[in-house]
């Protein structure tokens, strides 16, 4: 039997009813329990939320929305029932389908405060995994200065190379894969993504490639195995050290190099191609003109640029990330539409010759990363700690949902640096790569 309690109809709410009112207001198909022993929701629900402490309620009421829920969840004050912490996708999907994102009516909020006690409105320190708010990061430099970008990258990427190996698998590729078919494995899809980038850039033995934001050097090593001289740069010292070791392990030292440096400090130029796979999200939309101008200047005339990045569906929405993503995952991250990316590339003189959306591929990639995290949960927790592992499960499952529902997209934009009088280096008349 299914029983619902309408939290909006009770002036004297239990804590469970108050939590239900904050989340949705009515008929949430979850079983909610609270630290006062109260429970609401359908008795036969397979999914649920357990609010274990008063501190958890404080997190929820002082930071409404995803940030408050993330704080309570990461701190262990709010538990998700019926899902694995490495992949809470089913519960997040249910919430997304039933939660009313409008602010609860004033009367409901007043009833909530009366039920939980006014003392719960006094903020408490967030979990230690949380980054400082944007306005307090000024001590690290202005947004997207070299110093502050380095701090932001280290917050996300310097968790642990072994932790990422448990999540990403052997490819150590932390960007959207490209699935040749629906049944393809993650590893084959990542290899296919690098093949696609390689072919779009028309790379050939003896060519020179610059890969900015190269991560653990997967693209660099893919190109070097095929005789391309590849230089990768990353702001993560741990990534660079791991990549250099992997390069040595494959005997690619004569062709491949990964440096620990800002892409803006690369002095070499006249590259045949530049790949930027997952960097644009970190550089700031206002920096797009200088970013694309810098990459243009690294290319020889006729050289190609492949920009692969997460985007928004439109070009006129806020570029700032939400509270949870900004404070726990990608500090200072910004997203805009593919139209803005294309515009800025064109404005510095690059000719855009192709673009495509791999949105559904990223949802599948995140699905497979979560499956890896679940499979390797104990090892991941031992490596990075329970709270950090929960952050990654929450962020990847939530991001999967975002890509599935077109909240975010993933675009590859291919452009060429023209020579004098519009010479494009002899590009074929139509796309020359296989899908």
TrEMBL record:
Any one biological process term the GO annotation gives: lipid biosynthetic process
Pfam families: CMAS
One term of GO molecular function: methyltransferase activity
Record key words, sorted: Lipid metabolism, Methyltransferase, S-adenosyl-L-methionine, Transferase
Annotated InterPro entries: CFA/CMAS, CMAS, SAM-dependent_MTases_sf
Chain coiled-coil ranges: none
PANTHER family: CYCLOPROPANE-FATTY-ACYL-PHOSPHOLIPID SYNTHASE (PTHR43667:SF1)
Annotated family: Belongs to the CFA/CMAS family.
Name of the protein this chain belongs to: SAM-dependent methyltransferase
